[in-house]
Amino acid sequence: MEDIDAAFHHSISRDAENSEKKLLTGDKTPASSSSESPKISLSGLLNALDGVGAQEGRLLFATTNRYETLDAALRRPGRMDVHVEFKLASQYQAAGLFKRFYMPSEEVTATKVEDVSDDGESDKDSGYATPPKEKLVDVELPEGEELLPSRGGELGLAELALLSEKFKGSIPDREFSVAALQGYLMMHKGRPHDAIEFVDAWVQEEKAKRVNVVKDTV
Question: Does the model's pTM come out above 0.70?
Answer without folding.
Answer: no
